[in-house]
Specification:
- This protein has one helix at 73-84; strands spanning 4-6, 9-10, 17-24, 33-34, 43-44, 58-66, 88-93, 99-112, 117-125, 129-131, 155-165, 176-179, 183-187, 190-194, 197-200, 212-224, 228-229.
- The model has no long low-confidence stretch (mean pLDDT 86).
- Helix content is 5%, strand content 44%.
- The strands form three sheets. Strands 1, 2, 3, 6, 7, 8, 9, 10 and 17 form a nine-stranded antiparallel beta sheet that branches.
- Strand 13 (183-187) and strand 14 (190-194) form a beta hairpin.
- The protein is mainly beta.
Length: 230
Amino acid sequence: MQTVTFGTKNSYDDFGLILTDKDIGFPEPKLEEVDVIGADGVIDLSEVLNDDIKYKTRKLQFTFTVLKGNKYWASTVADVANYLHGKKLRIQMDFDPAYYYTGRCKINSFKTSKRLCTITIDAECEPYRLDINGNGEKWLWDTFSFQNGFIRVNAVTVNGSLQVNLQNQRKIVSPTFTCSTAMTVTFDGVTYNLPKGKTQVLGIRLQYGTNYVTFKGNGTVKIEYQGGAL
């Protein structure tokens, strides 16, 4: 049986809801196009100011059947509404355990018949589903996908020079480095100074797939960034 966890509460364990239907939408790209009179096509300016396409929010919809039926529907709906209606929550599905969504939830509809009670929950979410195994966090092998998951480097020890491959998902991110001593990091031909302590290097934009960085110095480096997939 498939379930959905909203925040800290599970649809079945906490509310007795059985998932009967789901609609996982994809975010619409934010396109900026100029229609030039007398010319074929359009001028696409969508990526002029950014190195990546941006997206609008994505919509999720879940339809549940109330397990206890008509006898307890009022209290079940009240519990669900009081907990999530209008709130921004983390949403995780056990059929997609490696990722989670963040979005504002609301009850779309509630219907009853002689035999069934159904409740539909909508969520307006951020465009990317985020990786459960964010860098710098304790690795969760139970949620790791051996088919398309990334095994990332969380910490390294540098003795002189060290090249590291920072694998990333579709969402472009800038990593944060926590160094035990001052050192440098080079990415795509550009070198950045890393003081002792925590530093986010906005000039490093990790792309989808492999990203090689080279540390120079002596000490340990903790590496943090959170990938996201569409």
